[in-house]
Design brief:
Strand content: 15-25%
CATH architecture: 3-Layer(aba) Sandwich
Mean pLDDT: 87
CATH topology: Glutaredoxin
Shape: globular
Number of strands: 5
Radius of gyration: 16 Å
Helix content: 40-55%
Strand order of the largest sheet: 1-3-2-4-5
Order of helices and strands: HEHEHEHEEH
Number of domains: 1
CATH class: Alpha Beta
Length: about 140
């Protein structure tokens, strides 16, 4: 039943609810691309405030391959500890399984979207540079 709920959440809302370290490894660490990870708690007012923002980000960025994941720190203290989470909400931006940036606290949607756009633009530049290098090698 739990897997069915997670699957429905992923399809309908675009949000992945991380329930354990194994799922984190599969959905975040092993993913080749950008993952926005929201460390939160149900009792946290600012966390609840940005909940709809995270859902919008997941929906708005679905076509770019960006994933959005939520981790309840009360249910996953080992993950919170591994990332040294001391304030919530805290949003980690993970690229190819590695943390590349962090935003602490509740912010307007634009702050998170700008960071996503910035990180995707960096990725696009790298791909373009690699494509140009391949063309140079082929011409030589």
């Amino acid at each position: 039943m739990n897997q069915t709920i997670l699957f429905i959440n992923y399809i309908i809302m675009g949000i992945i609810h991380i329930e354990n370290p194994e799922q984190f490894k599969k959905e975040v660490v092993e993913y080749k691309g950008l993952v926005v990870v929201d460390f939160r708690a149900e009792w946290c007012g600012p966390c609840r405030m940005i909940g709809p923002v995270m859902e919008e980000l997941a929906h708005d960025n679905e076509a770019t391959g960006v994933k959005v994941a939520k981790i309840n720190v009360d249910n996953n203290p080992e993950l919170a500890g591994a990332f040294q989470v001391s304030s919530i909400p805290v949003i980690f931006f993970m690229k190819d399984g590695q943390p590349v940036d962090t935003i602490i606290g509740a912010n307007p949607k634009g702050v998170y979207q700008n960071k996503i756009d910035e990180l995707l633009a960096e990725e696009s530049k790298i791909v373009k540079m690699n494509d140009e290098n391949d063309e140079i090698k082929m011409a030589a």
